[in-house]
Amino acid sequence: xxxxxxxxxxxxxxxxxxxxxxxxxxxxxxxxxxxxxxxxxxxxxxxxxxxxxxxxxxxxxxxxxxxxxxxxxxxxxxxxxxxxxxxxxxxxxxxxxxxxxxxxxxxxxxxxxxxxxxxxxxxxxxxxxxxxxxxxxxxxxxxxxxxxxxxxxxxxxxxxxxxxxxxxxxxxxxxxxxxxxxxxx
Length: 185
What we know:
By secondary structure, the chain is mainly alpha-helical. The protein has 7 helices and 3 strands. Helix 1 (3-13) packs across helix 4.
């Protein structure tokens, strides 16, 4: 996925200013595709230059007024083209997994505490996703747009569920290894 496509998606959902987009990224899209304020503004300029979006005319001209952007037909076509295109999964890159592999050769000191910290972070994220699900996707809510948005949220819930369960297992393994190392010394 790319930032331009994330911005086109957000603007098709609701025309917005750069600041509004930044806030929306923080509350929704940012859970699976993050971007800084500067990246969003830079990309808005590129998308406008490419004729994919435009700034809506201001109701009253004023100096320093924020621009509200909407997607043009060319932007909608680009997003549809990108959505329909095939894309291979990205290889997994996770420093925690690499650190576990390194611990096999240098020892596990400090690793158990960090695994517990990671587990807590994932548990908090999981609870936040579940709260969003309770709030935004009550039973019976099911238009096509809502069903697809809920599917994205379910991916987050399932991933965080996986991580919390896997980290429970990892903590137990590392604790057992650490106890065994302590007895051998």
